[in-house]
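ok so I'm stuck.
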Amino acid sequence: MSLGLRERASRVLLDNWHGQSTIPASGLYPHQWSWDSAFIALGLRHLSPRRAQRELESLFGAQWPDGRVPHIVFDASTPADAYFPGPAFWQSAAVTAPGHPATSGLIQPPVHALAAWETFRAAPELARERGFLPRLYPRLVAWHRYLTGRRDFGGRGLVSIVHPWESGMDNSPAWDTPLSRVAPTTSLFTRRDLQHAAAGERPTDLDYGRYVRLAQTYRDHGYADDLATHAFAVEDPLTNALLAASEAALADIAVELGLDPAPHLAELARVRDALADTLFDGGDGCFHARDVHSGQPLRCGSVAGLIPLVVPGLPVADALVKTTVGPRFRLGEIGLPPSFDLTDAMFEATRYWRGPAWFNIGWLLWRGLRLHGEHELAATVRAGLLSAADDVGFREYVDPLTRNGHGASDFSWTAAVILDLLAAA
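replied:
not stuck anymore, here's the structure
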């Protein structure tokens, strides 16, 4: 292991800091992204707890009045056309307060309370002095209430996502079936992502046209959350698992603030039960997303189906562990979690979320494995992530078999979780 790995990871986060928040990577991602900031805070807390706190405070400063946390907060100093879809596309000012930061209208997985609690734990006295948790806690509660109140389209107690981008795993094969019902937009647009990454590593033009259509429809309906508005509505295991894990973190935050943790523990149990009862498939030992419109499970080998390992008290954790080490993911052998089933014909080792290993997903599995007492396997995952970063740098994602790096370089959440893994030694 390179002696300079910590220093190199630290430099990435320092270079990508833009005053109040951290961009995921220069060029390709020039603004603040929601779940990126949560993972980034996990790393920043080892460098500057104050900066880690500000990272989350900055993101929640752009929270909408309805409680949603937008998936992009646009940097006013960055040219408006540096990223597509940019602020002119989303028109967020039409539904937020005057002077509110320009944002997108979509969301991303709710890992924020977990990040806030871990950030507090890094420097409790500083956090208390700054009033970090008293200020953030009500915003986190409003965020969770938005998800459970406005997004339970299926009536089963699970959150629905309305766009593949909301999953954080943009073009996973899990979304192919519901996405196939969506007619691509007829509007002309320029894909900025292809100026920074090879087309073979990114979503296809057809998929991108469908993404834009879904976002246009949501925008044109005033970001209304009703099932009739959305051609794409899916109960995603990753999103709901992180909601449950974050409810556990909110319970800890409530105790710190002298509040009753019971409502959060009850919500954790409710989401956990709904996940296990609705999305778990005992036949293949994995969770699968559910298409709300058809009521059918979206059976495919997405790594999202393993992320419920982060949920405390998950009753089917043993089955998930067996799946992680089986031929579909080979986690005990290769140490890096492929984002899709290695044995499936749809597996693509270098295309965005259709096969490559991502470091934040590895971190979640490492945490989940430790939570359920699988310390040896967790150590294998930790070693695999650290050695991959040492070999190829802080890439956006890597081929899980060759370990070649792909996507953006000097990617912030990669550097952040590496710092956290190093600190766990």
